[in-house]
Amino acid sequence: MKKITLLAILSAISFTTYAQKIYDFAAGANPGAWVQAGSGISVTTSADGLVFEYGAGTPRIDITRGADPFVVSDGTHMLVTLINNSTEIGSFSGFFDKNNGVDTGTQFLGFQTGVTPAAVKGAGVEKTYIFQLSSGNYNNDSGALTFNDTDNISNMEYCGIRFRNASGAALTGTSADDGNLILKKVQIVNAGTILKESYDFSIDNSASFTGVDGTVSGGTSTIDFVAEGDSTTPKFGQSFYGVDASSNTYVHLVVDSNESNADQIKFQFVDASSTTKTYGNKTLNIGASTVVDINLSGKTEWTGNISDWNFVLSNVAETNVTSGVVKISKIVFDSNPTLSSKNIDNTLFSFSPNPAKNFINITGVNKINSVAIYDMTGRLSLETSNLGNNSVDISGLNNGLYLVKIKDVNNNISVKKLIVSK
Questions:
Q1: pLDDT (tens digit, 9 = 90+) per residue, 225-265?
Q2: In three state form, how does the secondary structure of the chain look?
Q3: 350-420: CATH homologous superfamily?
Q4: Residue of 22, 34, 224, 407 with fewest CB within 10 Å of its CB?
């Protein structure tokens, strides 16, 4: 067996980090001395991170008060990187001290859905989730008028994460029943300080993508935007991760399908002077896939780190955009006029069934040359070029989540998720 060497397939991101406060739990570390609370049972250090076992209810992982505090200027957002091995956990919430100088106690934030449950117990995938630490109580604790302070220094001494199911209801199962959770890293950062210039939604999630006059949700290998139907210019985009505009003069969007009546798409961003700029007016195919390339070179406002950008839908008739689903599989910022066909292209191939037991059947625009299947650690589990009827025997694979790398005779490559469930 060998490790996959195409790291871009597993990460599919350009990821530059300027995080201002990091709790990294790798290699058996536990900065902040995080502990179980609520219906949590235990927190154990490991090479992968903090292994969290829990009971039914609302389990929590809390930082030990005063063990390794941060200040609120470190960041307005908390990034949580974890492996969710549980088939039930599907939402989470952050919390922190009420540090407004008057109130005491804990500020609990609302539960945020979108945490990906494991397809089968123990088969979790590492992902990073984001929530905003937004509250009038998010202030440094000076110790003067609250009971939260232990060191008499103006800082935030307490925070944590709690978990529930995808509906925001208390868990009915335990980690013994459904699988545990491994907490790998917690980062306190400001919007725009982490740069991310490539999104492949067969691997990435919909974290911090939002819609205006529409909603964004995570699909199997896409993010899905649905307009509300009452606007001529609904839009979706990113307001947390930054992009180095000076080094990336093109933006590319791969739309797998478009069930709305939108036949045009533009790119919009907020520049350094807080002015909204809109460029491009590209054709968007209705009822089909589209690869959109937008040239931003020569746009003087497109410079520095941009952390608030959107794609705007419209139609030539200037009527309201209907509420059909628009599925996006990839967004890339680079300096190339077009998105290379040798990049991961999710529009050229598909396979079924998924989940699968013994076989998958692959269809493609061109003749399929080879198929390789990797587990989520990057280990090659199966490789074949013997594709009778474009069918692949997967009966030897264990239950779990895999990445299927498909290559055609023109060296086009696609990577998609496969769930094996027997």
A1: 999 999 999 999 998 899 999 999 999 999 989 999 999 99
A2: CCECCCHHHHHCCCEECCCCEEEECHHHCCCCCCEEEEEEEEEECCCCCEEEEEEEEEEEEECCCCCCCECHHHCCEEEEEEEECCCCEEEEEEEEECCCCCCCCEEECCCEECCCCCCCCCCCCEEEEEEECCCCCCCCECCCCCCCCCCCCCEECCEEEEEEECCCCCECCCHHHHCCEEEEEEEEECCCCCEECEEECCCCCCCCEEEECEEEEECCCCEEEEECCCCCCCEEEECCCEEECCCCCEEEEEEEEECCCCCEEEEEEECCCCCEEEEEEEECCCCCCEEEEEECCCCCCCCCEECCEEEEEECCCCCCCCCCEEEEEEEEEECCCCCCCCCECCCCEEEECCCECCEEEEEECCCEEEEEEEECCCEEEEEECCCHHHEEECCCCCCEEEEEEEEECCCCEEEEEEEECC
A3: Immunoglobulins (2.60.40.10)
A4: 22
